[in-house]
Amino acid sequence: MNNFRRLFLSRCAVLGTALVAGVLKPLQALAAEWNKIAFDAKTLPEAMKGAGVQNASDSKDIVIKAPDIAENSAVVPVEVNCKIPGTQIVYLFADKNPQPLIAQFALAEGVEPYISTRIKMGDTGNIRVVVQAGGKNYMASKEVKVTIGGCG
Amino acid sequence: MADPMKIRAQVSGDMADIKILMNHPMETGRKKNDNGEWVIASQPHFIQQVTITLNGKAVVDGQFGSSISKNPFLGFKVKGAKVGDELVVTWVDNKGDQRTDKTKLEAKPG
Amino acid sequence: MLNKFALRVIAVLCVLATSLGSMSLNAVTDPEQDRLSFIELYQKKFPDRPLDDYVFGALMLSEDAKQQYDSIMEFPPFSPAIEAGKAQWEKPFKNGKSFAECFPNDGKLTAGNYPQYDEKLGKVVTFEMSINQCLVANDETPLKISDMKSMGVLMSYARTLSDGMKMNIKVDSPAALEKFEAGKKAFFMRRGQLNFACASCHMQNAGNILRTEILSPTVGQATHWPVFRGGDNLNTIQARYKRCLEQIRAEPLEQGGEEFNNLEYFHSYLSNGLPLKASVYRK
Fold first, then answer.
1. Residue A76 belongs to what H/E stretch?
2. For residue A5, pLDDT beyond 70
3. What per-residue confidence (pLDDT) applies to C145?
4. From CA C114, how far away is CA C124, in angstroms rounded?
């Protein structure tokens, strides 16, 4: 059984009982539990620890496409391309955001190790991607400058 | 139910390119105070979970924080997907609101 | 904060002090000559930029910025607003007719003809005004031109029907020329606490950076409207004029009023021949 289904089903076991108890809507039983500790964390180390990726090592096989200077810090396009085989989960952080964990994506087999999204950045800082593949964590980052425009 | 998502799901060769635009304010509830510090000023309201299936099989299980931009955009690609495959996208937000939209994969034009 | 900003800006303006008058405001105005003079000015500044790029404004001067625009425009977050505009455009009036019937070609490839001088009314008519003329002719209530929630949203769809159309402003009579000249005068008039004219930022200073922003050249500016600033702040061209005046601390002018209409007439003429595109992302 691959990691992705394991991720789903381990949560299902817990949520399944809650479902039977009538506490949850059936839909929510399918999704993994939202990682509140990681998302609420206010520093990067805490967010990474909450996500379980504090031991990530640098990798050149993660390519982050993001602006050098964000045109508008509320809509910063980010694209992640990962060349690591067996990519299972992609975590997205913005180091200087008040809550650095932005999102995480568990990808099933057959899904390309690619994610495109748009994020809000609070200040100039690194966009950081951590990829979980084959039980190991890999990481890359790119700095995005956020300016306070004068004519907007 | 919340406003519908826009989904563009196109197949070219053996690769499906899927783009989703969700309709949601994604409010962090945060503002910068006079000291330049981020403080919670109002209730955060944001999508927390996104589950996506293709022909009933889970493909993406996403979790969002409130820093995903308003009207969240998500793009991903699936190998081996075919025209006619059914894509179902569901989101749930922190207030328990949810939305499900579905579409069938189309051939990429041109 | 204002003082610091004003000081830095005045430093820039000192350079402009003499150059603002370089395009003459003499008695015989030739719109074509004006348009070509503006283009010549910018092509000296940006020799590598083809004229077609000017529709992107400041984005044409930053690859990094243009890439963000391209990425967001692949699937813009303001698509729901355009859909609401489409519903507005298509909804029949009480008498059963609809907007499409007020315009040639169902409203397609028509926005580039506006603003236009209306001989009968003796004034410049913008596309928004022609929408209101249509409403009134069909016994419906006209929309408030400055209301982005109604007129703005309608424009966000209605103008897309003219995507790709080349700007086609006509100045065909002495009376029309008068309005063109009035618009030109408005463009060059210094205003407000900062004593800026449109020309102060958008002529000799085009391409320069003022407080982290790249200033766009005037040619091309009128083609891409409305804009969704930051992805969700809808602005028609005159809503943007209003905002510019606020930023230079000048007296506000009325959206849909004569001065803005004449300005838009002159301003749009300078973009003649360039392709329109509605509902675009800007920072």
1. strand A76-82
2. no
3. 98
4. 9
Nearest chain A alpha carbon to B38: A98
Beta strand ranges found along C69-203 (DSSP E): 116-118, 123-125
Average pLDDT estimate for B78-106: 96
pLDDT tens digits along A84-110: 999 999 999 999 999 999 999 999 999
DSSP, collapsed to helix, strand or coil, labels residue A50 as: helix
Interface of A with B (CB under 8 A): 4-5, 7-8, 25, 27-28, 30-32, 34-35, 39, 74-76, 79, 94, 97-99, 101-108, 110-112, 114-122
Question: Do C267 and C216 form a contact (C-beta atoms < 8 A)?
Answer: no
CB contact at 8 A, B6 and B102: no
For A39-55, what is the mean pLDDT? 96
Report CB contact under 8 Å: B58, A5. Answer: yes
Backbone angles phi, psi at C135, to 5 degrees: -60, -50
**Hey, are the CB atoms on A75 and C72 less than 8 Å from each other?**
yes
Confidence (pLDDT) at C22? 47
Please state, in angstroms and as integers, the Cα–Cα distance from residue C125 to each residue in A72, A115, B30, C244, C256, following that order: 34, 47, 44, 22, 9
Largest CA distance in chain C: 59
Cβ distance C140 to C88 under 8 Å? no
Q: For residue A41, what are its two tokens?
A: 């964390």
Active site residue C244: yes
How much is the average pLDDT of C225-240?
A: 96
pLDDT tens for each residue of C127-181: 999 999 999 999 999 999 999 999 999 999 999 999 999 999 999 999 999 999 9
What gap in Å lies between CA B64 and CA B51, rounded to an integer? Answer: 11
Which residues are CB-neighbours of C76 under 8 A, at least 6 positions away? C228, C231, C279, C281
Question: Is the pTM value of this prediction over 0.80?
Answer: yes
CB atoms within 10 A of CB B60: 23
**Residue A20's pLDDT is what?**
43
Closest by CA position to B52, among listed B83, B76, B72, B82: B76
pLDDT class of A29 with cuts at 50, 70, 90: very low
| CA distances for A26 relative to B7, C108, C163, angstroms | 24, 48, 46
Tell me how long chain B is.
Answer: 110
DSSP E strands: which ranges in C47-137? 116-118, 123-125
Q: Is B23 on the interface with A (CB under 8 A)?
A: no
